[in-house]
Design a protein that fits this description.
The structure holds 3 protein chains of 3 kinds.
Chain A lengths: L1 H25 L6 E6 L3 H10 L1 H7 L2 E6 L3 H10 L6 E4 L2 H9 L8 H10 L2 H6 L1 E2 L2 E2 L2 E7 L2 E5 H7 L7 H13 L17 H14 L1 H9 L8 H14 L8 H7 L19 E2 L10 H5 L1 H4 E5 L11 E10 L4 H10 L3 H9 L17 H12 L3 E3 L1 H4 L2 H16 L4 H11 L3
Parallel strand pairs in A: 1-2, 1-3, 10-11
Antiparallel strand pairs in A: 3-10, 4-5, 6-10, 7-8, 7-9
Helix pairs in contact in A: 2-17, 10-11, 10-12, 20-21
Chain B lengths: L1 H5 L6 H31 L4 H28 L3 H34 L13 H8 L1 H32 L5 H13 L2 H12 L11 H8 L13 H26 L4 H9 L4 H29 L3 H6 L9 H11 L3 H14 L1 H13 L4
Chain C lengths: L2 H36 L3 H6 L15 H8 L2 E5 L5 E5 L4 H31 L5 H11 L5 H14 L5 H24 L4 H9 L4 H12 L1 H17 L2 H6 L9 H8 L8 H27 L1 H6 L2
Antiparallel strand pairs in C: 1-2
């Protein structure tokens, strides 16, 4: 045994030193590296990497992107643990407020600020600010106030796109009379179940109460259970809780995955005829539908309810924030603030960008072009309220409140429970 | 050689000093070697395969070497000192690592549990008040009790039955491997398959969930299983039993192999039936193992998190403590509450600890 | 054995086999469902139950496996109408990473836990009860609370992103169970096995290496398989201490990220689950002969 230990000891000393000697020669010239950490993975990750190639080629800076589906957990552990990435793409402004308030973030510097002022509508700068100080730069964003439908089946039945809420209700009744189920709704999303419902509530609130009340609601200047919120729930309830209007009734709303539910529109015959969801919905559809998007899929904005507020657009998006201030990090952030950083991705499809000076012709199909146009030209654009509210509500009681309500809980009780959970 | 050295012969203080110095030198030398290895592994950019092999040799060999050298050093001291230090060579490394990785973080959590979300202001017992009065938390306590009783009972019960039965058949390895397989599936995969079992589609559609397919085959109405109060907990616990029975089976089975065959044969010759043999010979013999297995599965049920989080997210009255802890910490970024709930979990395990300590006291060392 | 006893034995065997077969069928239904789903096209998986294949419906495909093993072959058409292909990275790197993480993360804690279990079981020292109580209590501590403080320490000493860091982390998180399980086994080794050795004045280290370790093989093998499974299937600890960039990503990270940002491709998980499962099952088969042998049986006799 002693012999074995001696051999081991020698091996431990000799082997590493042997390799240590070899490695000195192989080490390459130091390349400047920018680490970016975000929540998007797989296909979107690859698109992002493609989109930043021009930057890497021009500057010689290596941008290393790491994506993880456990982003929310990891980012807080890494930041609190003293190991933040250079740049993080935060999906929720709430997360940015949290880091900004604790002084982890680097505020925008003058040249970046200039680029942001020039290339974005003011709303994006505000969304990236905490306490009046701008931190976050938006890149890829999404727009959610859209209704999708099976184009060919609609044409066959002679259904027409509604332009007002009443027209939409009339259309729904017509569908029911024809033996069709108008809506497909699924809010199941594993640990995030319920968010689809929060989007509906927000969309309707923007249409009935308007953006100012909406902002007050987000900032808790009016209580969560204000009459305006209740009204929005009542309007949605007329659709959601009526089994004639929704495929499979409330049980299906609760148990069907939000990625599966749009697929029911493209079965033969269609199980449902409309689906409200963001621009990313196309990636959930059947392969053959995705291949013929323009022929198969129709889309219109969720109609207006109160003409005063028109057709507001609800959206979301990742904001890029800086944790480590280095020249190459700054350079990359400034690149992200320009349309150049989105153009390649826009051409590939599957993403919308907020840049004012973007070239709408870059988008590969009519659907995305029209969505991008709606996004850039929207008179009223508002960020997803549940992402802006404190986590206890926005990613907690609001989600579960929706689920409880669909499952039969009294609306007033549910709303006041959510109100109680708002952190003081 | 060691026996001679350990005799308490009078030695001059100089030799003693030299011996200590030499021991320390050896210790330092070993630590240095390990450090060089570490620096190399940290900074090297040799090919992955080579690094992996060196890393494995270095890591495993290094630990063995540390044990060996520590033992050698201690044995160079006087007998009395050696005797006092000996136990710490064995438990020392474990205690140091545990202190670093789990004990100190737990103490830190205890401290943070008296502070607010961002750990800035002292809030007294507010987080504990939350932990015991919040309606979701109260729901979690009841549910965890359900998990503890049914989950542990199910997994240990099935594990015991299967271990006892497979002990008596030829195809032992095949049967055991199948029961064990769920443990090998990572939970992301297992989650998908349980979706295929509990999935719900409206009446009249093709069911893709096995349970609903069976129900509709016999003319029943399809059910949304996860929304059924109380029973949804049982459906979730079934997943745990499916996963953990393999664990119970492996441990119990290895204890069964230790039951001396002579005792069992003696029982048979006395004319005892199989049930009698199991009840009065085998079970008492493996009782300590059953305690061990139950303890670990009780702790698993207290910490249960991923099944609930991915299947129902705690909706429909299925919330559990560990999922609340995770949400407070990483969803709501409320470190105070998250820490308080973690401490509550540690408190909840006190009865189990007490029982184990009781067992522990029965055994004596040298 | 009398013929009556033998007859009873035979009847027993039939009953035992039937009960076992029923249990095994129940246990394997989900796995069979998973296996069948992993070779079905996505649309079939979402539209019909997996058992319908027994009726002869539906197609089989290896596409799910192809995509999991070879990375996604993304085909898309750009604005100018060119068809482009992008292929993902393969899994071999992730396999190597997983092995590098797992092997020491299994052996190191077992060594340390076995030594500690021996210490707790057979040696007397001050604080023995207190320390043991703490070890049991630490079993229930959620490892999430340790991530931030440990990461801070790692940043100070440069352990972040190193394999040593993740081995130690898995050692720390795996030790309570390891010590607890091995203690319960080692403490039941009959006293007379080492009584003579102790009386002969043999060093504890010698007793540990020569007697305790060999006698504990069944328990060590069982613990080994559980620690292996835990480390192999772990995602969180690896992501925190090792990171998730492609050069260090372990298998589970690759698979988790393969299902799309919104998890829409979860049919790939069925194939992924089997790919990830291969190694643990092989390890189980390899170790099984150690823990079914029952080495204890021999030592207890007499």
């Amino acid at each position: 045994m002693k012999k074995a230990v001696v051999v081991l000891l020698i091996a431990l000393v000799v082997l590493p030193s042997a390799f240590a000697a070899g490695q000195a020669d192989t080490k390459q010239a130091e390349k400047k590296v920018v680490q970016v950490f975000g929540a998007f993975v797989d296909e979107e990750l690859r698109r992002f990497e493609e989109a930043i190639v021009p930057f890497e080629e021009r500057t010689g800076i290596d941008v290393v992107y790491e994506g993880s589906k456990d982003f929310e957990t990891l980012i807080s552990v890494r930041v609190e643990g003293g190991n933040p990435p250079d740049i993080a793409a935060l999906p929720q402004p709430g997360l940015m407020y949290n880091f900004a308030s604790q002084g982890y973030l680097v505020p925008m510097w003058d040249s970046l600020l200039e680029a942001v002022d020039a290339n974005y509508a003011p709303v994006w700068k505000d969304l990236g600010s905490y306490d009046g100080v701008p931190y976050g730069v938006f890149h890829r964003v999404n727009a959610k106030s859209f209704v999708w439908y099976p184009k060919k089946a609609w044409a066959r039945e002679g259904y027409e796109v509604p332009t007002t809420w009443d027209e939409m209700i009339a259309l729904m009744d017509k569908m029911v009379a024809n033996g069709h189920t108008p809506w497909s709704i699924g809010i199941e999303a594993g640990g995030a179940t319920g968010w689809v419902g929060t989007d509906w509530v927000e969309d309707v609130m923007l249409r009935t109460a308007g953006p100012e009340v909406y902002d007050k609601w987000v900032n808790h200047e009016i209580p969560f259970n204000a009459p305006e919120v209740k009204e929005a729930f009542d309007i949605i309830g007329k659709i959601w809780l009526n089994p004639k209007y929704v495929y499979g009734g409330t049980n299906t709303i609760l148990t069907q995955s939000y990625t599966d539910s749009p697929r029911t529109m493209f079965e033969n015959p269609p199980r449902s005829w409309m689906h409200r969801q963001g621009n990313f919905v196309t990636s959930f559809l059947q392969d053959d539908i995705q291949a013929n998007l323009e022929e198969e899929v129709g889309v219109f904005p969720l109609p207006s309810i109160n003409e005063e507020f028109g057709i507001p657009i609800l959206g979301g998006g990742d904001q890029f924030v800086v944790f480590n201030d280095r020249p190459e990090v700054r350079e990359f952030m400034e690149f992200l603030a320009t349309w150049e950083s989105g153009e390649i991705w826009a051409k590939r499809g599957g993403a919308l960008f907020p840049y004012l000076n973007q070239d709408l012709n870059a988008y590969p199909n009519e659907i995305e072009r029209s969505l991008a146009e709606a996004l850039v030209n929207a008179k009223v654009f508002r960020f997803d309220a549940s992402d802006l509210m404190p986590g206890q509500v926005g990613a907690g009681s609001f989600w579960t409140g929706i689920v409880d309500w669909v499952n039969g809980k009294n609306l007033d009780t549910m709303l006041s429970d959510v109100q109680k959970s708002w952190p003081k | 050689m060691t026996t001679i050295e350990r005799q308490d012969k009078p030695t001059s203080s100089l030799i003693k000093l030299g011996r200590i110095a030499f021991s320390v030198l050896v210790l330092v030398g070993v630590l240095f070697v390990l450090w060089v290895g570490f620096i190399f592994l940290r900074d090297s950019n040799a090919s992955q395969g080579i690094i992996a092999i060196i890393a494995i040799v270095w890591g495993v060999g290094g630990i063995a070497l540390l044990f060996w050298v520590a033992d050698w050093v201690v044995n160079r001291t006087s007998t009395a000192t050696a005797k006092r230090l000996q136990p710490f060579i064995f438990v020392g490394p474990a205690l140091i690592i545990l202190a670093w990785y789990l004990f100190i973080p737990t103490v830190r959590s205890l401290y943070l549990s008296f502070f607010d979300a961002q750990s800035k202001n002292f809030v007294g017992l507010a987080n504990y008040v939350f932990a015991f009065t919040d309606s979701k938390m109260r729901e979690s306590f009841t549910n965890n009790l359900l998990w503890l009783v049914i989950g542990t009972g199910g997994a240990v019960g099935f594990g015991l039955i299967i271990a006892l039965l497979t002990d008596r058949v030829k195809m032992e390895k095949v049967f055991k491997s199948i029961i064990f397989m769920p443990m090998a599936i990572s939970f992301v995969g297992a989650g998908v398959i349980w979706r295929f079992i509990y999935s719900y589609k409206p009446a009249g559609e093709d069911q893709i969930g096995l349970l609903n397919a069976i129900v509709t085959f016999f003319g029943g109405e399809p059910q949304a299983w996860f929304t059924m109060p109380f029973w949804n907990n049982i459906f979730l616990i079934a997943i745990l039993v499916w996963l953990q029975t393999g664990y119970a089976m492996v441990i119990i089975s290895s204890a069964l192999k230790g039951v001396p065959s002579t005792i069992i044969e003696a029982g048979r010759i006395d004319g005892a039936g199989e049930f009698r043999i199991i009840r009065s010979i085998i079970i008492p013999f493996i009782a300590p193992t059953l305690v061990t297995v139950s303890t670990t599965i009780i702790i698993i049920t207290l910490k249960i998190f991923d099944i609930v989080f991915t299947m129902t997210n705690g909706n429909y009255g299925t919330e559990v403590i560990a999922s609340m802890q995770y949400k407070q910490m990483f969803r709501f970024y409320h470190y105070g509450r998250g820490s308080a709930i973690a401490i509550v979990l540690v408190l909840a395990v006190i009865p189990v600890m007490w029982y184990n300590l009781h067992q522990f006291s029965k055994r004596e060392g040298f | 054995m009398t013929s009556l006893a033998r007859k009873r034995q035979n009847r027993w065997n039939v009953v035992v086999n039937i009960v076992l077969i029923v249990l095994v069928i129940v246990w394997s239904i989900p796995i069979i469902g998973l296996l069948i789903s992993s070779v079905r096209p996505q649309d079939d998986v979402l539209n019909t139950g997996w058992w319908t294949v027994f009726k002869g419906d539906g197609d089989f495909t290896l596409n799910n496996y192809r995509r999991v093993l070879g990375g996604r072959q993304a085909t898309f058409t750009d604005a100018e109408g060119n068809v482009l292909r992008a292929s993902g990275d393969n899994l071999s790197q992730a396999f190597i990473n997983s092995f590098t993480v797992t092997v020491p993360s299994v052996i190191i804690p077992i060594l340390i836990a076995a030594a500690a279990a021996f210490g707790f079981a057979w040696m007397v020292f001050p604080g023995r009860k207190l320390f043991f109580t703490i070890v049991v209590a630490l079993l229930v501590v959620p490892l999430q609370i340790a991530l931030i403080p440990i990461l801070r320490d790692y940043m100070k000493i440069g352990l972040t992103g190193s394999y040593l860091g993740i081995w130690l982390a898995h050692t720390g998180f795996g030790l309570p169970l390891g010590i607890y399980l091995l203690y319960n086994y080692i403490s039941t080794i009959p006293r007379d096995v080492f009584e003579s050795a102790f009386l002969d004045g043999a060093r504890p280290m010698v007793i540990f290496v020569r007697l305790v370790l060999p006698l504990s093989v069944p328990a060590i093998a069982s613990l080994g398989i559980f620690q292996f499974l835990w480390v192999w299937n772990d995602l969180l600890v690896a992501l925190v201490f090792l990171g998730g960039t492609s050069d260090v990503a372990v298998l589970t990270q690759r698979l988790a990220n393969m299902v799309g940002s919104r998890g829409q491709d979860w049919h790939l998980l069925t194939a992924g689950a089997f790919v990830v499962m291969i190694v643990p099952i092989l390890v189980f088969f390899f170790l099984q002969r150690y823990f079914v042998q029952g080495l204890m049986a021999g030592s207890v006799k007499g």
